[in-house]
Design a protein that fits this description.
Layout (H helix, E strand, L loop, with lengths): L6 H27 L5 H18 L2 E6 L10 E4 L6 H7 L5 E6 L6 H9 L3 E3 L5 H18 L2 E4 L17 H9 L3 E7 L15 E7 L13 H30 L5 H4 L2
Parallel strand pairs: 1-7, 2-5, 2-6, 3-4, 3-5
Antiparallel strand pairs: 6-7
């Protein structure tokens, strides 16, 4: 079915869009009064906005483990497979954390307003390397001064193949320069609810699993490629294990005649 003609998707997208627009209009006067200096307040506000959007779509979060408490600077990294990841990431309420997000979001003005208030670093595509270096250098200076945490997706874009994609080295270069540990977590979205790069999300449960910290104190910039591949290998293993667990669970719950299909 064409997503644009799916009445449910159109209705929920319209409701979500109106809600996000209203949320941006509500917080703007507060931002003016506070001279745009209350980033943490705006970030907490956006957490509730994201959670409401997820609820509108009937999406629940099940979280294993927990994020860091925000007192120590860490670099969060995760896989990125879906349009709904943005709301999952914000809805997690990662303490004292800024985000790297695609500059494409600037075209969606209400989202751009909320993201700017959160102190987001907007990135550009890989085919603009000089501009990317300037963005990362500026972010590095800010984060070194503020000691805030930060989130980046090493895949850089939505990978909708059901696999872990190529990892860019920016996340790991940044962690090396800051001397901050990596805080990896895996986002698992069942395929029957995952809209991929589209908007046709279905109700269901997204599972977020926080993994142990990975210390980077001994990392060197010269080793960033090797470290990037090492972390990607971990994500590939975690991803494979979760998909296998999910497939086995579906097979166990399926009627006898559907077991073969459930394992496909």
């Amino acid at each position: 079915m064409n997503t644009r003609r799916d009445p449910r998707t159109v209705a929920l997208a319209t409701i979500s869009g109106l809600f996000i627009t209203a949320a941006a209009l509500i917080v703007l006067p507060i931002a003016f009064v506070t001279l745009f200096q209350a980033r943490r307040f705006y970030a907490r506000y956006c957490v509730y906005v994201a959670r409401v959007v997820l609820r509108i779509w009937g999406i629940r979060l099940r979280v294993h483990g927990q994020p860091q408490d925000g007192t120590r600077q860490v670099v969060y990294v995760s896989n990125h497979s879906s349009t709904i990841d943005l709301f999952v990431l914000i809805g997690l309420g990662l303490p004292n954390t800024r985000f790297f997000l695609s500059g494409f979001l600037r075209k969606m003005v209400p989202l751009a307003v909320l993201a700017h208030l959160m102190g987001t670093f907007f990135t550009v595509p890989q085919d603009r390397p000089d501009e990317r270096r300037r963005i990362f250098a500026r972010a590095s200076r800010i984060l070194a001064r503020t000691r805030e945490c930060v989130y980046l997706s090493p895949e850089g874009r939505r990978i909708t193949t059901g696999q872990i994609g190529h990892f860019n080295k920016g996340s790991f270069h940044l962690a090396t320069v800051l001397g901050a540990p990596l805080a990896p977590f895996h986002i698992f979205i069942p395929r029957d609810m995952d809209p991929g790069a589209g908007y046709r999300a279905r109700p269901g449960t997204v599972v977020v699993t926080f993994k142990p910290l990975i210390e980077t104190a001994g990392w060197r910039v010269e080793d960033v490629v090797a470290n990037t591949e090492h972390i990607r290998d971990l994500f590939v293993r975690w991803h494979r294990e979760l998909w296998q667990e999910y497939s086995n669970d579906r097979a166990d719950r399926a009627p006898a005649g559907q077991v073969a299909h459930a394992r496909a």
